[in-house]
Write a structure and sequence with these properties.
This protein is α+β, with helices and mostly antiparallel strands. Helix content is 35%, strand content 22%. A seven-stranded mixed β-sheet has the order 1-2-3-4-6-7-5. The longest helix has 53 residues.
Length: 176
Protein backbone atom coordinates (compact mmCIF):
# COMPACT_ATOMS: atom_id res chain seq x y z
CA UNK A 1 0.00 0.00 0.00
CA UNK A 2 2.88 2.37 0.80
CA UNK A 3 4.41 1.83 -2.65
CA UNK A 4 1.05 2.66 -4.21
CA UNK A 5 0.81 5.94 -2.25
CA UNK A 6 4.38 6.87 -3.15
CA UNK A 7 3.56 6.13 -6.79
CA UNK A 8 0.52 8.43 -6.62
CA UNK A 9 2.62 11.21 -5.04
CA UNK A 10 5.32 10.82 -7.72
CA UNK A 11 2.70 10.94 -10.49
CA UNK A 12 1.07 14.01 -8.95
CA UNK A 13 4.44 15.74 -8.61
CA UNK A 14 5.28 14.87 -12.21
CA UNK A 15 1.96 16.25 -13.38
CA UNK A 16 2.55 19.47 -11.42
CA UNK A 17 6.04 19.89 -12.90
CA UNK A 18 4.71 19.15 -16.38
CA UNK A 19 1.94 21.71 -15.93
CA UNK A 20 4.54 24.24 -14.77
CA UNK A 21 6.70 23.70 -17.85
CA UNK A 22 3.77 23.73 -20.26
CA UNK A 23 1.79 26.64 -18.82
CA UNK A 24 3.93 28.87 -16.64
CA UNK A 25 7.24 28.92 -18.49
CA UNK A 26 5.80 29.83 -21.92
CA UNK A 27 3.82 32.64 -20.28
CA UNK A 28 7.01 33.75 -18.54
CA UNK A 29 8.87 33.90 -21.83
CA UNK A 30 6.00 35.81 -23.40
CA UNK A 31 5.89 38.30 -20.53
CA UNK A 32 9.67 38.67 -20.69
CA UNK A 33 9.44 39.40 -24.41
CA UNK A 34 6.70 42.00 -23.91
CA UNK A 35 8.76 43.69 -21.18
CA UNK A 36 11.98 43.79 -23.22
CA UNK A 37 10.14 45.02 -26.32
CA UNK A 38 8.55 47.79 -24.28
CA UNK A 39 11.92 48.73 -22.73
CA UNK A 40 13.64 48.93 -26.11
CA UNK A 41 10.71 50.87 -27.55
CA UNK A 42 10.65 53.37 -24.70
CA UNK A 43 14.41 53.96 -24.91
CA UNK A 44 14.09 54.35 -28.67
CA UNK A 45 11.32 56.96 -28.20
CA UNK A 46 13.69 58.97 -25.98
CA UNK A 47 16.33 58.68 -28.70
CA UNK A 48 13.81 59.89 -31.28
CA UNK A 49 12.82 62.87 -29.13
CA UNK A 50 16.47 63.90 -28.79
CA UNK A 51 17.24 63.20 -32.46
CA UNK A 52 14.35 65.25 -33.82
CA UNK A 53 14.97 67.96 -31.22
CA UNK A 54 18.60 68.25 -32.38
CA UNK A 55 17.65 68.66 -36.03
CA UNK A 56 14.64 70.39 -37.53
CA UNK A 57 14.72 67.98 -40.45
CA UNK A 58 15.03 64.87 -38.31
CA UNK A 59 17.82 63.59 -40.54
CA UNK A 60 20.71 62.91 -38.16
CA UNK A 61 20.51 59.14 -38.69
CA UNK A 62 23.58 57.49 -40.16
CA UNK A 63 23.26 57.75 -43.96
CA UNK A 64 24.50 54.15 -44.39
CA UNK A 65 21.47 52.85 -42.52
CA UNK A 66 19.19 54.60 -44.98
CA UNK A 67 20.72 52.80 -47.99
CA UNK A 68 19.38 49.43 -46.85
CA UNK A 69 16.41 47.88 -48.64
CA UNK A 70 12.96 49.04 -47.60
CA UNK A 71 10.48 46.67 -45.97
CA UNK A 72 6.76 47.43 -46.01
CA UNK A 73 5.10 46.59 -42.69
CA UNK A 74 1.38 47.24 -42.51
CA UNK A 75 -0.54 47.35 -39.22
CA UNK A 76 -4.02 47.01 -40.62
CA UNK A 77 -4.73 45.78 -44.14
CA UNK A 78 -7.91 47.88 -44.40
CA UNK A 79 -6.58 51.17 -43.06
CA UNK A 80 -3.09 50.89 -44.54
CA UNK A 81 -1.40 51.96 -41.32
CA UNK A 82 2.35 51.45 -41.18
CA UNK A 83 4.75 52.02 -44.01
CA UNK A 84 8.27 51.64 -45.35
CA UNK A 85 11.01 50.81 -42.87
CA UNK A 86 14.65 49.86 -43.08
CA UNK A 87 15.88 46.96 -40.98
CA UNK A 88 18.52 47.70 -38.37
CA UNK A 89 20.67 44.96 -36.90
CA UNK A 90 21.63 44.49 -33.27
CA UNK A 91 24.89 46.43 -33.64
CA UNK A 92 23.00 49.39 -35.13
CA UNK A 93 20.59 49.43 -32.19
CA UNK A 94 23.44 49.19 -29.72
CA UNK A 95 25.14 52.21 -31.33
CA UNK A 96 21.89 54.21 -31.21
CA UNK A 97 20.79 53.37 -27.68
CA UNK A 98 23.74 52.24 -25.55
CA UNK A 99 24.64 53.53 -22.99
CA UNK A 100 22.69 56.81 -23.00
CA UNK A 101 19.18 55.39 -23.44
CA UNK A 102 19.50 51.72 -22.51
CA UNK A 103 22.22 49.91 -20.58
CA UNK A 104 21.84 46.66 -22.51
CA UNK A 105 19.98 46.22 -25.78
CA UNK A 106 18.42 42.74 -25.95
CA UNK A 107 19.39 40.70 -29.00
CA UNK A 108 16.87 37.88 -28.56
CA UNK A 109 13.35 37.49 -27.19
CA UNK A 110 12.31 35.20 -24.32
CA UNK A 111 12.41 32.15 -26.61
CA UNK A 112 15.89 32.90 -27.97
CA UNK A 113 14.79 34.22 -31.39
CA UNK A 114 16.35 37.43 -32.69
CA UNK A 115 14.34 40.60 -32.27
CA UNK A 116 13.90 42.73 -35.38
CA UNK A 117 14.28 46.50 -35.38
CA UNK A 118 13.04 48.85 -38.14
CA UNK A 119 13.43 52.58 -38.74
CA UNK A 120 11.87 54.95 -41.26
CA UNK A 121 13.96 57.27 -43.43
CA UNK A 122 12.08 60.32 -42.20
CA UNK A 123 12.02 60.70 -38.43
CA UNK A 124 9.11 63.13 -38.75
CA UNK A 125 6.81 60.51 -40.32
CA UNK A 126 3.79 59.21 -38.43
CA UNK A 127 5.35 55.73 -38.43
CA UNK A 128 9.04 55.84 -37.55
CA UNK A 129 10.19 52.81 -35.57
CA UNK A 130 9.19 49.23 -34.97
CA UNK A 131 10.38 46.34 -32.79
CA UNK A 132 9.04 42.82 -33.21
CA UNK A 133 9.44 39.28 -31.90
CA UNK A 134 8.42 36.19 -33.88
CA UNK A 135 6.90 34.50 -30.83
CA UNK A 136 7.57 30.98 -29.60
CA UNK A 137 7.79 29.38 -33.05
CA UNK A 138 10.65 31.67 -34.13
CA UNK A 139 8.92 32.53 -37.44
CA UNK A 140 7.39 35.88 -38.32
CA UNK A 141 3.82 35.58 -39.57
CA UNK A 142 4.46 38.13 -42.33
CA UNK A 143 4.56 41.90 -42.69
CA UNK A 144 0.85 42.67 -42.33
CA UNK A 145 -0.71 42.71 -38.88
CA UNK A 146 -4.22 43.26 -37.61
CA UNK A 147 -3.92 45.67 -34.70
CA UNK A 148 -5.03 44.33 -31.35
CA UNK A 149 -4.52 41.77 -28.65
CA UNK A 150 -4.29 38.04 -29.18
CA UNK A 151 -4.95 35.22 -26.73
CA UNK A 152 -1.84 34.81 -24.60
CA UNK A 153 -2.17 31.02 -24.93
CA UNK A 154 -1.11 31.42 -28.56
CA UNK A 155 2.57 32.04 -27.82
CA UNK A 156 3.50 31.62 -31.51
CA UNK A 157 1.89 34.99 -32.37
CA UNK A 158 4.27 37.84 -33.23
CA UNK A 159 4.63 40.60 -30.65
CA UNK A 160 4.92 43.97 -32.39
CA UNK A 161 5.60 47.43 -30.94
CA UNK A 162 5.66 50.61 -33.03
CA UNK A 163 6.00 54.31 -32.20
CA UNK A 164 5.05 54.08 -28.54
CA UNK A 165 2.28 51.47 -28.78
CA UNK A 166 1.88 47.75 -29.14
CA UNK A 167 0.43 46.74 -32.49
CA UNK A 168 0.13 43.05 -31.49
CA UNK A 169 0.28 41.94 -27.86
CA UNK A 170 -0.80 39.00 -25.70
CA UNK A 171 -3.82 39.34 -23.47
CA UNK A 172 -5.12 36.90 -20.89
CA UNK A 173 -8.12 35.02 -22.22
CA UNK A 174 -11.40 35.67 -20.46
CA UNK A 175 -13.12 32.77 -18.74
CA UNK A 176 -16.51 31.93 -20.34
Amino acid sequence: MMKFLIGIVVLAAGAAVGWFFLMVLPAGKQKQTVAMTLNVGTAWMYWLTDEVGDSSSGSNVNAELMTRPETQIIFDANKKLGGAYRKLDYDDMTKLLKPRYLQDVPRVDGWGSELEFYLSDNLLNSYVMLVRSPGSDGKFSGNTYTMGAFDSKNAAEDIVWADGYFVRWPEQSKAP
